[in-house]
Amino acid sequence: MKIGIIVGTRPEIIKMAPVIRECDKRKIDYFIIHSNQHYSKEMDSIFFEELQLPTPHYNLGVGSGLHSNQTGNILIKMEPILLEEKPNVVLVQGDTNTVLAGALAASKLNIKVGHIEAGLRSYDKTMPEETNRIMTDHISEYLFAVGPNQERILKAEGIDSSKIHTVGNTVSDSLFQHLEISAQKSQILSELNLTAGEYFLVTAHRASNVDIASNLLELLNLFEQMHQNYTGTIVWPIHPRTQSKLKEFNIELPRYLQLIPPVGYLDFIQLQKHAKLILTDSGGIQEEACLLGVPSLTLRENTERPEAVEAGASELVGRNADKAVAAAKQWLSKDSYSWVNPFGDGHVAEYILDIIEGKNKPAEITQII
Ligand code: UD1
Ligand code: UDP
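Above: the input record for the complex with uridine-diphosphate-N-acetylglucosamine. Below: its predicted structure, written as tokens.
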């Protein structure tokens, strides 16, 4: 059994890490291809270091670019490697351009594709990730669905149920594996002069929120309203996409927004864990906030992860400042919160590899969740 593991961006590295570790533990023959869609140290190598991952065996060095250019370059550079390595299965995680290109390159060579985090749908085709998810799901042999919602969606799209395995999300493995070490090692709160439970944590990088100047300004107005209604710092580890758009649109930020470069995973876990509220348009952070028991406002009109909202851990507010202020009020008036975690039990990578190695029947796995 030989597995090709494909990564390209920050969340893929974090969510694929447990699978890589489990491959090492089981002494499975595997190789890693990194597209290098993300390449800045704080978006890329810091995660290989912190999560103690092996250096990728192949780095395609594609960098940034327009969608087709980036996807096409990955596709072209991936093919000779897959032809040479001849893996039995290629694993991709999520919905980035790297995922689609990796899955397509493998599928064209009749190599089985395993899609981790299959079946997510925002039903918003203007979102580039939606096309990537749908196409990847429909060329995959193993569809590793997070929960029953995704399983239902995939079946309704006509995907054979024998291909669908409901296992949870590897985000839970990664988070649970790093919670303790993050608490031990991270000094981020004292470095930023923050008091636990007294700051808002913000992240934003969706094209729909940051690529259009008027939308980005709407988002900043939402932060302004939050600041006016609730005291406390707003910490914002800024994604490079958003940083470059602020510069392009010549937008100056007010001083109450504490802008910092993207931080490593161990620091980010602590920032999330001790925030009084998280405001985000990130997929992974919607999940992590929910797993950490911290309420969040989802800065989107729709979400492919309705589970956090259904669990009562998040509210969809888009860029609507009134909605955000009202939703925040509900949470900030409570002393404690609790909800059932819908994002996995921390053993998801084991289930995935059990299925690929043919150790468990899918029906048994479904019972585990
Ligand atoms: C990509 C994914 C998105 C995912 C996000 C995770 C697609 C279509 N988008 O979005 O689904 O949520 O990664 O963070 O695949 N840049 C740097 N350094 C880097 C990477 C990017 O400076 O290491 C800047 C460049 O200006 C680049 C811009 O960020 O043009 C956008 O990068 P890109 O990878 O195209 O999209 P993301 O917004 O990162
Ligand atoms: N993250 C991080 N440092 C940061 C911001 C995010 O380590 O400064 C981690 C976060 O814990 C989560 C992942 O990056 O695991 C989310 O990535 P991102 O928001 O870029 O992508 P998405 O999940 O939206 O695809």
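Notes for the reader.
The chain is about 50% helix and 15% strand.
The two ends are 26 Å apart (CA to CA).
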